[in-house]
Each structure stands twice: as structure tokens, then as C-alpha cells.
Structure to design on (347 residues):
């Protein structure tokens, strides 16, 4: 915040967010890596996400992710993100979100950003980062499979491609034939060279993929047979609740944050409940990046990222700085108005 007087408050639209992030896959993936490292050394505050649920709309939820990040970024804030799965049938995305950024020194909110794009972007960057680190000790996967092919799957593919990945084979599986066809259309328009196959059979998709991306909206495990993973793929379990605990127990498991991930009936949470311990967890992605954990090649690897508010803050602040630099920041005049402690009384 600069100068004196009323602290400025800006609103940043989805169009501006997209403009600031377009084509920056590598930069954002590096930013997410730096943020995981900051979080790993404790230079962040990231309390548990709060889930608001509704008895009259059981499939819906709104999640609050408050967070604070240190380092060069020094910003606090909150992502407030809705998930209404029925939206998709009505022709609008499942998730919608805003991100509030708060000033480190005064606490004043200084920006409100459209955040469904920021959220999808940080999720995809985290997935691409994990794909890179978790495949280092094995042949680089040339066959990728997308299990659930909505908006998040699209962003993850864009981030893999933007980070230099290319695939000989791209498998696609979705309960909805329309979603699978839509994703296939996106892949074709992206100019990918790989051969695209739509699998109706989930088992075939997994057995045909060395890198598997789960991005469904399943509320409980629907993939239960560990033998489907006997070729030891790397699994990006972004939707968190697809895999039965038995599959996790036969795999090397990594998460983004242990306390966060072992909650809310995620598959790792179910594995903890089943075994009564956390011994099935190898550690966090940051542990792998810092060399504290080595990923064995001879087992499936499952990365279950709960999704950390610090990532939204880091990407949101990046967008804010880019929009400010471009001179296009839209400040709302007089947003904070009651600024004198003792305004003159009525005459
Ligand atoms: N971990 C994180 O940080 C993080 C962040 C953002 C989103 N997500 C999760 O990613 C998931 C996908 O989000 P989205 O916005 O792409 O949703 P979306 O509604 O756009 O797409 C989900 C797709 O999954 C398909 N699907 C549902 N159940 C399936 C099943 N059992 N098998 C195969 N396909 C199935 C649907 O038909 C749909 O096409 C959500 O679960 C969301 O919560 C996770």
C-alpha cells in the first residue's frame, strides 16, 4: 500500500486474470514450487479450510481457504470457492470463486480477484510440478490418462504441455460421453501430436497410462482394484476421493500438506481410518523436492494434493502485480469511506 489517505481497493476481472496468466505455465509452476518450499519451511500460515455445506443442497459446498504467506510476497487473504456440480448441466462451470488479498501491514483488503481461473491454474501448476518431480527416478511417461475430463483436466493438460511434456498416447475416460468428446475436441485443437483414445472402460484407461490424472467429482472411492496399478504408474489424484484405501496402501503416497489432506473423507483420510496410522504416507511433495524422501520406481505413486490457500495467494498476488504493471488496475473510488476516527458531528 502506498501513500496516505484512503487505502485503494481494486477489482480484477476474470478477463484480466486470464490475460495475466496466459502462456505463463512455466513461471507459474516455478512460483508454485517456491510457495511449497516456503510453506515447507514454515513461512506461511495455512489453517484448515472451512467447508460450508447445505442440508437442502447436499452435492454443493462453499469452501473458505484463509492463508498468509511470507517471503517476498508478504500477503494475507482468503479464497472463497463454491462447488455446485449441477451447474455443468446448466451450462456454467461447477466452481466459481473470489480471492481477497489483504495488506500485510494494515490488514486492509486491497483487491478482489475473480478466482476460478486462479484456482484452476494453481491446481494445474501443482499437478505439473508433481508430475515432474515424481517421475524423475523412472522413464518419463509417454502415455497419459485423464480420468474425469472437466475444466481441471483441461488446465492440467495445458500446464503439462506448457512445461514441455508431450505424449505418444492420451487416454480419456469420463462417465459423461459429452465431456469425453468435449475434452477430445480441446485436445485436438491444442495441436497435441499424441494419439487420443476415449476409453469407456476405466480399467483399460488406467492400464494404458503411465501418468494418470484423476479429476472427477466422485464423493467416494469408485476405483478399488489394486491390480489395475500393477504397472506402477504415477497418479495425480487431484479429485482426492476416487481411490479405495487398498490402492493407497499398495502405493507410495505423497500429499501437499499432511494435516490438510487427512480430512474430509479424502482417500488418504480413509486409509488412515482403515489402518489407524499415517505410516502409509511417504511425506509431502516438498519432502521430495528437498531430498528428504526418495520415490521408489517399483511401486505406483499417488500424489493427493488437498489444495493449499497459500498457492491461491501466491498466484493471486502475481496477477495483481501484473495487472498493476500493465496500468489496467481498476480501483474502486471511495471503497473504504469511514476513515476519520472522529468525524465532525452534525452541525
Ligand atoms: N485438489 C485440489 O487442489 C483441487 C483444486 C480444484 C479442483 N479440484 C477437484 O477437481 C475435480 C474436477 O473439477 P472440475 O472443475 O474439472 O469439475 P467438472 O465438473 O468440470 O468435471 C468433472 C468431470 O468428472 C466426470 N466424472 C464424475 N464422476 C466420475 C467418475 N466416477 N468417473 C469418471 N468421470 C467422472 C464428470 O462427468 C465431469 O465431466 C473436482 O473434484 C474438484 O473438487 C481439486
Amino acid at each position: 500500500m502506498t501513500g496516505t489517505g484512503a487505502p485503494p481497493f481494486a477489482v480484477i476481472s476474470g478477463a484480466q486474470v486470464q490475460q495475466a496468466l496466459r502462456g505463463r505455465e512455466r513461471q507459474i509452476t516455478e512460483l508454485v514450487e517456491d510457495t511449497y518450499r516456503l510453506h515447507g519451511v514454515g513461512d506461511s500460515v495455512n489453517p484448515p479450510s472451512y467447508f460450508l455445506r447445505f442440508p437442502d443442497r447436499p452435492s454443493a459446498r462453499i469452501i473458505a481457504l484463509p492463508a498468509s504467506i511470507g517471503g517476498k510476497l508478504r500477503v494475507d487473504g482468503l479464497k472463497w470457492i463454491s462447488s455446485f456440480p449441477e451447474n455443468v448441466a446448466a451450462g456454467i462451470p461447477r466452481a466459481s470463486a473470489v480471492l481477497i488479498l489483504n495488506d500485510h501491514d494494515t490488514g486492509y483488503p486491497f483487491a478482489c480477484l475473480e478466482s476460478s481461473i486462479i484456482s484452476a491454474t494453481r491446481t494445474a501448476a501443482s499437478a505439473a510440478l508433481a508430475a515432474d518431480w515424481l517421475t524423475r527416478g523412472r522413464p518419463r511417461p509417454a502415455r497419459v490418462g485423464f480420468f474425469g475430463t472437466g475444466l481441471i483436466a483441461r488446465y492440467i493438460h495445458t500446464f503439462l504441455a506448457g512445461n514441455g511434456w508431450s505424449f505418444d498416447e492420451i487416454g480419456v475416460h469420463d462417465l459423461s460421453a459429452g465431456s469425453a468428446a468435449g475434452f477430445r475436441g480441446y485436445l485436438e485443437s491444442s495441436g497435441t501430436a499424441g494419439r487420443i483414445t476415449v476409453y469407456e472402460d476405466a480399467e483399460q484407461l488406467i492400464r494404458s497410462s503411465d501418468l494418470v490424472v484423476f479429476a472427477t467429482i466422485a464423493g467416494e472411492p469408485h476405483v478399488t482394484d489394486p491390480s489395475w496399478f500393477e504397472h506402477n504408474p504415477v497418479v495425480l489424484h487431484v479429485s482426492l476421493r476416487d481411490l479405495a484405501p487398498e490402492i493407497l496402501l499398495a502405493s507410495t503416497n505423497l500429499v501437499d500438506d499432511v494435516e490438510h489432506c487427512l480430512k474430509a473423507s479424502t482417500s488418504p483420510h480413509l486409509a488412515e481410518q482403515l489402518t489407524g496410522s499415517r505410516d502409509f504416507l511417504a511425506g509431502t511433495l516438498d519432502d521430495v523436492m528437498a531430498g528428504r524422501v526418495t520415490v521408489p520406481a517399483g511401486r505406483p505413486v499417488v500424489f493427493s494434493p488437498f489444495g493449499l490457500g497459500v498457492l491461491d495467494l501466491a498466484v493471486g498476488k502475481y496477477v495483481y502485480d501484473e495487472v498493476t504493471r500493465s496500468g489496467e488496475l481498476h480501483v474502486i473510488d471511495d471503497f473504504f469511506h469511514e476513515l476519520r476516527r472522529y468525524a465532525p458531528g452534525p452541525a
